[in-house]
Every structure is written in C-alpha cells, then in structure tokens.
Amino acid sequence: MSSRIFTIPNILSFIRLALVPVFLVLIIAGEDGYALLVLVVSSVTDFLDGVIARRFRQISRLGQLLDPAADRLFIFAALIGLAVRDVIPWWLLVVIVGRDFMLLVIGIVLANYGFGPLPVHHLGKAATFCLFYALPILMIGQAFPDAAWLTSPIGWAFALWGAFLYWWAGVIYLTEAVRLTRIPRGELAVESDTLGRQGS
C-alpha cells in the first residue's frame, strides 16, 4: 500500500472534499437542482478514484481515509442544509451526529488501550448506504415538487432505516469496545494484533 499523497485518486478525493461546502451552500439556498448536480459530480469522482486506484495500483493509506470522510461530510452537509430549511427535523441530525461522536470517543478510548479503529461492521455499511441515498431522494422531491408524492416516502424509509441501523451498528461497536477494554493487560498485545488483521 502506497504512502504517496498526490496520486490521481487522492486528487479526486480532494476535489470531492472541496465540493462539500459548495453542496451545503446550494442546499441552504434552496438550489436543490444544482446541489444534486454537485452530488452527481461527486459520485462520479468517487467511482473514478476507486477504479483508478485499483487499476493502476495507487491505493494509499490517505485515500482510504479521504474516501469515507468525504461520504460522511456529504451526509452531514445534506442533513444540516435540509434541517435549516425544515425539510427534515433537527432530531434526525442529532441522532446521526450523536452516533458519530460516540464512535469518536470510542476510538480515543481504544487508542489509549493500544488498539486501532474497530473493523467496519456490515450494519454500519448498510446504514451509510441508506443515508447516502435517503437525503438525495428527499432533495429530488424539493427540486421537483411533482415527484414528491413518490420521493418523500421512499426517502423517509431510507432515512429512518439508516438512522436505526446506524445506532444498531453503534451499539455493536460500543459492546466490542467495552469487551476490549476489559481484557487483562497480558493478553492485550495478542488481541490488538488480531484486531489489526481484521481491519486490514
């Protein structure tokens, strides 16, 4: 795995990150059509950076951090923008951000015990998938009101399932973190090595 910074996939990821504030401003301004266009561009660059990284062996540690970070930031931007406009309730934003704050605290605690990040659980991936599609679907209903009768129930179904799965995965991460912190000191090195292989 490469430690290079300025690879084509990483540059595409930097472009995605730079689009996040543009995306947020467009949503708050009610320019949902343009916001969706930015999201499409972001999705294309996300697809391309993965293909290029695998095809030309440009997978890097930085890229593995930037890619999920960009996904999270786009979700947060959509949540904030739609909450500001009262399209979604603020409690949904609190639920999503609260879970990620919990994971941040868990990560800090585990680092103090010598552990790296917990392996990503499939429920966490499913939750991110639901949220990543729920918010654009709700935005389509804002951009094209005639389609809201269809997009609104579908978008809310994805959003509520995503929030539920997000916290279900969060409870699993919390349970695993508690288990790890209770391991006797003599067994920590073995467990840390096993966890590292699972997450790689």
Q: Any descriptors?
A:
200 residues, mainly alpha, single chain, 7 helices, 0% strand
How would you characterize this protein structure?
With 200 residues, the protein is mainly α. The protein has two domains: 1-85, no CATH class; 88-200, no CATH class. Helix content is 80%, strand content 0%. The chain is built from seven helices and no strands. The chain has helices at residues 8-28, 32-55, 61-84, 90-112, 122-143, 148-181, 188-199. Helix 1 packs antiparallel against helix 2 (32-55), helix 2 (32-55) packs antiparallel against helix 5 and helix 3 (61-84) crosses helix 5 (122-143). The longest helix is centred in the last third of the chain and has 34 residues, at 148-181. 28% of the residues are buried. The mean pLDDT is 86.
The outline comes out as globular
Overall tally of domains: 2
Query: What is the C-alpha radius of gyration, as a whole number of Å?
Result: 19 Å
Number of strands: 0
Strand content: under 5%
**What is the mean pLDDT?**
86
Fraction of residues in H or I helices? over 70%
H-E string: HHHHHHH
The rounded distance between the terminal residues' Cα atoms is 11 Å
Largest sheet: none
Low-confidence stretches: none
Counting DSSP H or I runs of 4 or more residues, the number of helices is: 7
**What structural class results from the helix and strand content?**
mainly alpha
